[in-house]
Amino acid sequence: MRIVAITDIHGRAGPVRRLVEKLGEQSFDVLLIAGDITNFSGAETARKVLEQLLSLGKPLLAVHGNCDGRDVPAFLEGLGVGIHDRRVEVGGVGFVGIGGSNVTPFSTVWELSEEEIARILESNYREGDIILSHVPPKDTKADRVHSGLHVGSSALREFIEREEPPLVVTGHIHEARSVDRLGPTVIVNPGPLFRNYYAVIDFDEKKRVVREVELERL
What we know:
By secondary structure, the protein is α/β, with parallel strands linked by helices.
């Protein structure tokens, strides 16, 4: 399974258009969006972004980010692409979604307690599933801000250490573009699409392991 992963679009139409042009020339199986489709905007902005991506005609799965408007999660569900607090399958592979972020100092739109993040994981995850989470796990390359602090979710990290999912795709921390590991789990923060970053992941759906990750730039 060839997975294209993007995050943190923040309503920028230009990078989305360039990505669609590039992906139109490539073969892939599913497109994952790890949140912040808009920049504190609502469903109409999200629609403009997603219409371009849906035009590729490939399965698309998304979660909202902490900076998406209040109506964005319902809009994603209405489109049939939102997987916050849900589990869906594509090509026999399960995907579990966590939208929003853990609590931040900025009182953004969508923030969850660590207990809520843990509940979402416990109630939806099945062995071998891929996790699509806006917030990264704590104390990894994917959650380190410029100051050096690690600001990710401790509940997500604890779950990864215990259940060992094969892949976690995340975003939220723009400067933390990276590929990391916690035990056998591969953690990918593609970097923000509004800065022209994305990732391509080669996933073995039979063995449930990541073969290769390519951090790409438009």
